[in-house]
Amino acid sequence: MTEAALRPLPEGMERPGIARGLSSILAHRYLLTLLVRKELRVRYQASVLGLAWSYVKPGAQFAVFYFVMGGFLNLSRALPPFAIFLFSGIVIINLFTEILTNATRSIVQNGPLVRKIFLPRQLFPVSSVLVALVHFLPQLVILVIGALATGWRPDLVAVGAALLGILVTIALALGLGLIFAAVNVAFRDIENTVDLIAMVAVWFSPVLYSVSLVRDHFGPDSWLTHLYMANPLTIAVELFHRAFWYPAADVTLREEALVPDLMARGGIALAACLVLLVVGDRVFTRMSRKFAQEL
């Protein structure tokens, strides 16, 4: 390394071309805004419905699951109001899957930018989070309106559970997305792996059924039950159930249908996901040095 490269820079300046991780995002907020606008514009270019797809896709998903699970399997009677139980799980799962799948593809899809100029590579996965939140908010508004119609009245615990569930979901999806995005540059099979994760996520978390079915099937002390309960995605879905379904549910169903000590588990899940996010950021930063050559 030359003497000029080692020489300290004047105050307020930083050496270009150095990856600094997620901490560099705040200094590039304008670029992040441009990337989010670009992603939304490209996604809905020549689309008739445009952003209305944020309502159509979860609406169709909800209708199919409600008809099958609520009608055929009679869960609409076992977990009333089942529509709120189901939709609250769908909303948070969709947030997770959209962040994860888009973040995984973000570097490859923005290959021309990565090859031509230097900018913090973390901008691309983080922009996927913001795009997902743009789609998440209309679904959340519908969920709140539906919950209010069934007698839901927000309380501090419900609001805290909803915010905690969102934070757990974002930290988990972005942490995994950073790792998968970095590996996906060299091995494109990762995209198919993430698609599989997104497909099974709705079945391996209590979106369509209550956790009481898992306890009854494996036993309350089974290691499989404990493993299921330790899944941060299970906790995130249950936090949304606590926020929107629990206040309007029958008293006899409330405790049985939720994970015990939910708020404490939510705090532990958030801490674990933040650790994953730090690890993902470091893995991504280390591997990002070769992105331009490998793309």
From TrEMBL:
Residues 49-287 form the ABC transmembrane type-2 domain. Keywords: Cell inner membrane, Cell membrane, Membrane, Transmembrane, Transmembrane helix, Transport. This is Transport permease protein. It is a multi-pass membrane protein. Belongs to the ABC-2 integral membrane protein family. The lineage of its organism: Bacteria, Bacillati, Actinomycetota, Actinomycetes, Micrococcales. The keyword Transmembrane helix applies. It comes from Demequina sediminis. PANTHER family: INNER MEMBRANE TRANSPORT PERMEASE, TRANSPORT PERMEASE PROTEIN. The chain crosses the membrane at residues 48-69, 81-103, 123-149, 161-187, 194-214, 262-280. It is found in: Cell inner membrane; Cell membrane.
